[in-house]
Amino acid sequence: MKVLLTGASGFVGSHVLDRLLDRNIPVAVLLRKSSRRDLINARLGSFEICIGGIDEATSLDSALDGVTHIIHCAGATKALDRNEFFGVNQGGTRHVVEAMNRRGGQIQRLVHISSLAAAGPATVDHPRTERDAPAPVSDYGRSKLAAEQVVRERCGGDWTIIRPPAVYGPRDGEFLRLFKAVRSHVRPYFGGGRQQLSLVYVEDLADIIVTALTHPQARRETFFVGAPEMVTAGELATAVASISQNWSVPLPLPNAVLWLACQWSGLVSRITQRADVLNAQKYAELSAAGWVCDVRKLSDQLGQGCPTGLQAGLEKTLAWYRHHGWLRI
Ligand SMILES: NC(=O)c1ccc[n+]([C@@H]2O[C@H](COP(=O)([O-])OP(=O)(O)OC[C@H]3O[C@@H](n4cnc5c(N)ncnc54)[C@H](OP(=O)(O)O)[C@@H]3O)[C@@H](O)[C@H]2O)c1
């Protein structure tokens, strides 16, 4: 067995790389010359590096030498516009699938990392299930759904689609913002903090991704991968404050402020040509009533779930931020 991993330089991909190496599975990673290396530096020398991108057929073709399985984790979570989201998420996935198909039966399975955003928002009354018709609300979500369609319709071999909700854990720069706010003694939330969330601790997600490579019940299946526990945005902020042992005051912000922040950030991104997670598109996601998924198919079919509870996961995350100097004590 040998795995080609895309997106290894990123938050989720770096944990998937760790899990593969911990299980002594030979790995090749596809990195761009510009890819950050700080998250994978500790493991350098224990995996093969192929220089190239998911937009380059030739580099993908040579990266597949000797490969039996692919984990496609590369993706754009922020972009300047719709074309960039679709170019990376749909177009990049198409290149990966076409390269796989060119290898005939050599590649036994493609595990594709999608997102709850591809399925769309949902609340605890009706959490999203894999059977529901997708209804994404942003260009990001629509581009991830388009990538799923490429996998289902064009992949000549076996595949598994993994749809995580919001992912948190060591090495994540997005949840870090909330930890930093709490360190500054505020717990900001929008919409009364009532948005309902499913979450997944990144090491649990990485475990499932590696399991999906070979599990017979994962063949040509789609799974939401998250912890069974659901929280509101307000509860999440309170939990972060509690484990940080910082005094903090709630900072409720009306949705109009969120909308303005998204518009402003989008404008700054266009001027500086640097994409940010906050943009006009993101407003539809952030103002949704909930992003909740039903994870019973995962445990029923694969016999594996996401065991890390919110408290334990946040504690490990905080410890990592402090140890690595991402958050001052
Ligand atoms: N984080 C979450 O909460 C979350 C939730 C649901 C789904 N996901 C999905 O999980 C995957 C990983 O997300 P992440 O949070 O780890 O994001 P991330 O930290 O931004 O990492 C993204 C990875 O994709 C690579 N990439 C981006 N554009 C590329 C391109 N044009 N060609 C080749 N590689 C490219 C990046 O490589 P470079 O270093 O070269 O830029 C990086 O390795 C994505 O598919 C995302 O949609 C994430």
List the helices and strands and how they pair.
Blueprint: E1 3-6, H1 11-22, E2 27-31, E3 48-51, H2 57-63, E4 69-72, H3 82-102, E5 109-113, H4 139-154, E6 158-163, E7 166-168, H5 175-183, E8 186-190, E9 196-201, H6 202-212, E10 221-224, E11 230-232, H7 233-244, E12 249-253, H8 255-272, H9 280-286, E13 290-291, H10 296-302, H11 310-323
Parallel strand pairs: 1-2, 1-4, 2-3, 4-5, 5-6, 6-10, 7-9, 8-12, 9-13
Antiparallel strand pairs: 9-11
Helix pairs in contact: 1-6, 3-4, 5-7, 7-11, 8-9
This protein binds NADP nicotinamide-adenine-dinucleotide phosphate.
Tell me the structural class. alpha/beta
CATH fold-level label of one domain:
Rossmann fold
Individual helix count: 11
Average per-residue pLDDT, rounded, comes to 95
- Span between termini: 43 Å
Beta-strand proportion = 15-25%
**SSE succession:** EHEEHEHEHEEHEEHEEHEHHEHH
Largest sheet: 7 strands, parallel
Uncertain ranges:
none
CATH superfamily of one domain: NAD(P)-binding Rossmann-like Domain
Q: List the ligand species.
A: NADP nicotinamide-adenine-dinucleotide phosphate
The rounded Rg comes to 19 Å
| CATH class division of one domain | Alpha Beta
| Shape, per Cα inertia axes | globular
Q: What is the CATH architecture assignment of one domain?
A: 3-Layer(aba) Sandwich
Work out the helicity level: 40-55%
Oligomer: single chain
Strand order of the largest sheet: 3-2-1-4-5-6-10
Tally the beta strands. Answer: 13
Give a quick set of tags describing it.
11 helices, 329 residues, binds NADP nicotinamide-adenine-dinucleotide phosphate, Rossmann fold
